[in-house]
Amino acid sequence: MNLEGNEPFFVLRDPLGYKMLLQVRHFMHYQIRENTELFCRIDKINCNGRIYLEPQNPWYIEGQTYPFEVVGSGINYHITGLPQSYYLVRDKARKIWTVKLQQNGLPQYYPDTVLCKIIRIKKGILYLRLDDGFSENSVLEQGLTYDFELLGEAVEKSSETSFYILQDVFKSRYVIKKKFYGKYNFIKGKSIKCRVDGFTDDGQVFLEPEHPAYTIGNSYPFPVVGRKEFRFSDGACQKYIVVEDMLGEEVNIPVEEASAGYWAQFNNVVCRVVDIKKSRLEVELTEGVC
Questions:
Q1: Do the domain assignments include residue 135?
Q2: Residue 136 located in a structural domain
């Protein structure tokens, strides 16, 4: 079927009889046919309740390693300023994908085939990592904090997004978006402590700089600057207390309906910092202050 914009969708029926839509353009090469059973992973459910499905790839499984035909190679320059070598490989559906090389330069002759690990499959796209016995991120461990030097800033022209460029003691470079950390007042050439929060599908590192005012696990006073509620399509209601942190950023704290009246009497509250992601605080209420 086609919806607004004339974009075609597959119409799927789940085991309970509910119908769901799946964009055709991402999965044309899967050769999905009418009246056939399709196994799907629930990839995400957004705040409006919309369910995003990822059909099972007909040829590949995440986490497994497969041979791919090498059809080309090249070098491009990352926003960090360092060159990045890559192979172009062809999969069983004859689609071409890019897989990064660990070395900066290209070999004189590229092989006919290479082994690649399927890191993730999302919207039909294969995210590959060369299975050469070396992990690009083997030096960094998720959950640990490391020192990085701030080399400067760079702007990605295609998206006009500004990034801070960081470098570790092994001279590997990383980026974090400036829009999240502009209020941290970083100084070029100085050391920044960052926690490794994870890795992207293509092997990049998620870094979370230490907050200049807050530490996870500690409790702090916050002024209450507002209250609000959000009503869902099913009639349910979620209430929030809005507080302001030391950088002037608002933090929404969900409260249960039964306790909303109790917390409404306080102009200030004490909260424990549960987590910090992209400079945003996640906190939980501990006590009220009149």
A1: no
A2: no
For the segment 213-255, what is each residue's pLDDT rounded down to a tens digit? Answer: 999 999 999 999 999 888 776 777 888 999 999 999 999 999 9
CA 129/CA 125 separation, integer angstroms: 13
What ranges make up the beta strands (E) of the chain?
9-13, 19-23, 40-45, 51-55, 65-77, 83-90, 96-100, 113-122, 125-130, 145-156, 161-167, 173-177, 191-199, 205-209, 219-231, 237-244, 250-255, 268-277, 280-289
Total domains in the chain come to 4
pTM of the model: 0.68
The CATH number that applies at residue 253 is: 2.40.50
Angstrom distance (rounded) from CA 35 to CA 146: 53
Same domain, 126 and 70: yes
Does 235 share its domain with 283?
A: yes
Does residue 228 fall inside a structural domain?
yes
Closest CA to 197 of 124, 282, 96, 86: 282
The answer to the question of residue 192 being in a domain is: yes
Give 146's strand partners. 194
Task: Return the residue matching tokens 């995210």.
Answer: 127
**What is the residue range of 8's domain?**
4-55
| CA distance linking residue 226 with residue 241, whole number of Å | 6
What is the C-alpha separation between 32 and 38, in angstroms, rounded?
A: 8
